[in-house]
Specification:
Layout: H1 3-6, E1 12-15, H2 29-38, H3 45-60, E2 64-68, H4 71-84, H5 88-93, E3 103-106, H6 118-123, E4 128-131, E5 144-150, H7 162-171, E6 175-179, H8 188-192, E7 196-200, E8 211-215, H9 217-224, H10 238-253, H11 256-274, E9 280-286, E10 294-300, H12 308-317, E11 321-324, E12 333-336, H13 345-363, H14 371-383
Parallel strand pairs: 1-11, 3-4, 3-5, 5-6, 6-7
Antiparallel strand pairs: 2-8, 7-8, 9-10, 10-12
Length: 390
């Protein structure tokens, strides 16, 4: 019996993408092997992080880097570093920010929720969020510690573009922190002059759960020193650090073109097969932030016999459970993402969707649950955790 069976968990076919709630990504064998190998050894964590800094610098073009427990914690420790610098007394003070520059400028559309509010990650440090004014420069004042820019599909209004944002902040001497947890571009923001750039180690890179922070050596030193303060509560183990290093190395060796060809073929197959199902309208959807990824947008109309969220719910209830990307499901559509599918799983997705739509049309038991009821059902399930989870 494999580990899924031994733990009595439901097997999942992940057509949702690199989602934290589903375990993010598959870990390449070479990355897993390095993580396992280091488990039987003691290491000086500061020395290991120094090696990680070299690997991160090589991969990103930055002067230095470090690994933290997650990209979300990366936001907190970089904001903290912008307020404290390398001063250990100040680091130990947080979240008391008395006497410190403690305002962080963020554009309104960037105050996203990635599973938790971005604003909360900033406020955990004791910092205050200041909404960027239409004229960005007027947002800066004597208490400005940094400005945060988010590159994510969650962003509702990009506002000022990243190159202009960085240039205008630098002209005023304001540090720029770029959160781009799930992006392919490891070098762009560093080249533009960002002080710190945050990536997820466990999404497209395929490492263990961790965050990777790259930037200027002086600032990254202040970020790393947060381990003596709030960063201690977000620490990463030796296996997470080494896996992040291995993931960066594996990423540099990956045949990205071959991988993209495979994913495009899956998308084309979905478009052909799902486009024949009554009640479904399908379209090829390029990635929202410019990553070299394509997805299938599946719009569910009345002819399908059920709402989009009902279809997603019924797919998830199957065994194996089929998970779709449902960020915008209240609009009547969801997305299918091929990036985490094992060979042959794309057909399981097609067959499951076809079966659930056919059953709804035959039984006429769909279009009964409102989006409000669906949302409440999800919330109720969480409130009752750990009961009922498999």
């Amino acid at each position: 019996m494999d580990i899924i069976s031994r733990l009595d968990l439901k097997r999942i076919v992940n057509a949702s993408g690199t989602m934290t709630a589903l375990g993010a990504s598959r870990v390449p064998p070479a990355v897993a092997a390095m993580a396992v190998e280091i488990l039987d050894h003691f290491v000086d964590i500061d020395a290991l992080q120094a090696r990680a800094s070299q690997w991160i610098a090589r991969a990103t073009g930055a002067e230095a880097g470090c690994v933290t427990s997650s990209a979300a914690s990366g936001i907190a420790v970089t904001v903290a570093a912008a307020m404290t610098g390398p001063d250990l007394r100040r680091i130990e003070m947080l979240p008391d920010t008395k006497g410190l520059k403690n305002e962080v400028v963020v554009q309104t559309g960037h105050l996203i929720n990635y599973g938790a509010p971005l604003e909360q990650a900033i406020r955990l440090t004791g910092a205050k969020v200041k909404l960027a004014a239409e004229e960005l420069e007027s947002s800066f004042g004597p208490h400005t510690a940094a400005a945060v820019y988010v590159v994510s599909h969650h962003v509702t209004d990009r506002g000022i573009g990243l190159p202009d944002f960085i240039a205008r902040c630098r002209a005023r001497g304001v540090r720029v922190i770029v959160d781009m947890a799930s992006e392919y571009d490891l070098k762009g923001p560093i080249t533009l002059g960002a002080d710190a750039v945050i990536h997820s180690a466990h999404k497209f890179l395929g490492g263990l759960t961790a965050g990777i922070i790259a930037g200027s050596k002086d600032f990254i030193r202040s970020v790393y020193l947060q381990k003596c303060g709030i960063g201690r509560h977000m620490k990463v183990g030796k296996e997470g650090i080494i896996a992040a290093m291995a993931a960066l190395d594996a990423w540099s060796r990956r045949n990205h073109e071959l991988n993209q060809q495979r994913e495009r073929a899956i998308v084309s197959g979905w478009l052909e097969s799902l486009g024949k199902i009554r009640g479904l309208n399908v379209a090829r959807e390029p990635d929202w932030t410019g990553n070299p990824i394509e997805r299938v947008k599946v719009t569910v109309d009345e002819g399908a016999g059920l709402f989009a969220w009902e279809l997603a719910e019924r797919l998830a209830a199957r065994d194996p459970s089929v998970r779709v990307r449902d960020d915008l499901i209240a609009e009547g559509y969801f997305f299918l993402d091929p990036c985490n599918l094992a060979r042959g799983e794309e057909k399981l997705v097609t067959d499951a969707i076809r079966a659930e739509v056919a059953a709804a049309q035959k039984n006429r038991d769909g279009r009964k649950m409102s989006i409000a009821q669906y949302s409440e059902q999800l919330a109720s399930r969480l409130r009752n955790w750990p009961d009922g989870f498999r």
